Amino acid sequence: MIAENLKEVRRRINDKCRSVNRDPEEITLIAVSKYFGLDAITQVYDEGVLNFGENKAQELEAKFSELGDKISWHFIGNLQKNKVKYVIKSAKFIHSVTSVSLANEINKRAGAIDKIQKVLIQVKTSDEETKSGVAEEEASKLVLACREYKNLLPVGLMTMAPLTDDENLIRKSFSDLRKLRDRLNSQGFNLRELSMGMTSDFEIAIEEGATMLRIGSAIFGERDYSKNWKEI
């Protein structure tokens, strides 16, 4: 089932890219493996997916200890400063930098292991109270702060669209992020990545310029939150 799911996701990505004159090679598919076990991850990896996303720091650390750095791990969840130590060795990208204090902690931990940590700034592009991120007007200050740290490399922006059936609101969330990225790049920030789009809205994200898609249930199936990932 996982292999068939992945095949369908890839088809949809390719079809949408063709329809908007984009190259599918511009897009990184991140298989969001949170709550799924090692067997499921290995199945997806064996189908050629190299990028996986986790949103729990200690779960990422545990999976990294089992599967290692053959996988490009992305930390995509809210990250507390006291949990940075669990992700710094494993995460190739941290998508959820929301403050200077968090950036400072990541830089400190990365410096301790002589690593240049790639980060994305999480921007709040909707009015939903449950969504995290910096306001658009604060994003440039945070990117600038990250650039000042020796062991951080800001590479892009991330957002989550509102949970709604209104495609206009979803599209606005994504287009606002793209426009913000383009404004920052016009100021010399050199941000390539736009991490946006999940199972329910990734085709809209492709239309609006996404370079990283975070897709979980469309690949792995529905999660059973009553179980530990080691049981799945």
Question: Secondary-structure blueprint of this entry?
Answer:
Layout: H1 2-19, E1 28-32, H2 38-46, E2 51-54, H3 57-67, E3 72-75, H4 84-87, E4 91-97, H5 100-112, E5 117-122, H6 136-148, E6 152-158, H7 167-186, E7 193-195, H8 202-207, E8 212-215, H9 217-220
Parallel strand pairs: 1-2, 1-8, 2-3, 3-4, 4-5, 5-6, 6-7
The major β-sheet equals: 8 strands, parallel
Helix content: 40-55%
Average pLDDT rating: 95
Q: Which overall shape is indicated by the principal axes computed on the Cα atoms?
A: globular
- Write the CATH fold name: TIM Barrel
Q: Give the radius of gyration.
A: 17 Å
**Would you identify the CATH H-level superfamily?**
Alanine racemase
Show unreliable segments. Answer: none
Sheet with the most strands: spatial strand order = 7-6-5-4-3-2-1-8
In N-to-C order, the SSE pattern is HEHEHEHEHEHEHEHEH
Q: What's the number of extended β-strand segments?
A: 8
Helix/strand structural class: alpha/beta
How far apart, in Å, are the first and last alpha carbons? 15 Å
CATH uppermost class? Alpha Beta
CATH-defined architecture: Alpha-Beta Barrel
- Classify the beta-strand content into a percent band: 15-25%
List the total number of helices.
Answer: 9
Tally of distinct domains = 1
Key features of this structure:
8-stranded parallel β-sheet, TIM Barrel, 232 residues, single chain
Description:
This protein has 232 residues and is α/β, with parallel strands linked by helices. The protein has one domain (2-220): TIM Barrel. Helices cover 42% and strands 17% of the residues. It has nine helices and eight strands. It has helices at residues 2-19, 38-46, 57-67, 84-87, 100-112, 136-148, 167-186, 202-207, 217-220; strands at residues 28-32, 51-54, 72-75, 91-97, 117-122, 152-158, 193-195, 212-215. Strands 7-6-5-4-3-2-1-8 form an eight-stranded parallel beta sheet. The model has no long low-confidence stretch (mean pLDDT 95).
